[in-house]
Request: fold
Amino acid sequence: MDMNQIVGKRVSDFLEDKGWTQVKLANKIGVSRQIMNNIIQGKKNITVAEVKSIAEVLEVDVEDLTKTFTKEKEPETITAFMGEVSTDKAKKGIKKVEKIMDMIVFYKQTNDSFEDMMS
Reply:
């Protein structure tokens, strides 16, 4: 799967989560319905500016639109612990906690690597 297809699939998933149509997103970012359809189908060479604009409108990080798919989706640690949440506020809170956890893991790995280099 190339990057255009990954972004298209991710956009499609976020649209479904929000209950939005392609037309609604197209209107919000100022492109035609046809261009939005091509983005979602992975047929358009999407620009960085378009990815940033889509991420902004969907209220997600650019990384959320560009990260590759794994063979088997593992549940996020916090979500698995707490279960699924339904409110937007709770979802945003979980995303923040996940980012903090990622930062902690990154710090630990960096620190471990530094200690290995120094020994």
Remarks:
- The chain has a mean pLDDT of 84.
- DSSP finds seven helices and no strands in the chain.
- The radius of gyration is 17 Å.
- The CA atoms of residues 27 and 33 lie 8 Å apart.
